[in-house]
């Protein structure tokens, strides 16, 4: 059995965020059942953690070559043109992730400078926003690793 490449840090982060979301939701359900009211702050944390799960999970999928794409053209091309297509795919993905990293970083910095507070708990908003550029930068790294593996023939597309 061939072992897939791993993005251990992102996998652990996504798993931890998912466990915390589950515990928050369970606590909220029990609280609502027992007291008739809910914990208002849970939505703020859950939305933030869902973003972490999404980006960390996408990073793991990138590393494992598990993102959905149509490989018909890629499989039909011979060696050199196929590699050009893989590099083009890397370039397109890098541009998008680079823009997310750049603008997410600018947003986090602005939130820090302005001292914006979250609406529910009054925590610094940048605590939530800073994960966007950090995890999209991690995705850039995983995309580069995946592309190198594909160019070297270590990762094959599904048939």
Automatic annotation (TrEMBL):
**Where would you find this protein in the cell?**
Cell inner membrane
| Start and end residues of each Tripartite ATP-independent periplasmic transporters DctQ component domain | 22-152
How does the entry describe its membrane topology? Multi-pass membrane protein
From what superkingdom does this record's organism come? Bacteria
Alphabetically, the GO molecular function entries are:
transmembrane transporter activity
According to its UniProt entry, the protein's GO biological process terms are:
C4-dicarboxylate transport
Q: Which GO terms describe its cellular component?
A: plasma membrane
> What stretch or stretches form a coiled coil here?
none
Keyword Glycoprotein assigned: no
The family line of this record is:
Belongs to the TRAP transporter small permease family.
How is this protein organized at the quaternary level? The complex comprises the extracytoplasmic solute receptor protein and the two transmembrane proteins.
Instruction: Give the function comment from the record.
Output: Part of the tripartite ATP-independent periplasmic (TRAP) transport system.
Q: What protein name is recorded for this chain?
A: TRAP transporter small permease protein
């Amino acid at each position: 059995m061939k072992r897939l490449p791993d993005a251990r840090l992102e996998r652990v982060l996504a798993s931890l965020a998912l466990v915390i979301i589950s515990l928050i939701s369970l606590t909220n359900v029990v609280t609502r059942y027992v007291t008739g009211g809910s914990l208002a702050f849970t939505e703020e944390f859950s939305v933030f953690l869902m973003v972490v799960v999404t980006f960390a999970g996408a990073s793991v999928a990138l590393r494992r070559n598990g993102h959905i794409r149509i490989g018909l053209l890629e499989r039909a091309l011979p060696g050199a043109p196929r590699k050009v297509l893989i590099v083009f795919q890397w370039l397109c993905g890098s541009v998008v992730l680079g823009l997310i990293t750049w603008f997410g970083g600018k947003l986090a910095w602005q939130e820090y400078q302005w001292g914006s507070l979250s609406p529910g708990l009054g925590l610094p908003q940048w605590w939530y926003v800073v994960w966007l550029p950090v995890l999209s930068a991690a995705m850039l790294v995983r995309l580069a690793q995946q592309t190198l593996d594909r160019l070297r023939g270590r990762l094959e597309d599904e048939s």
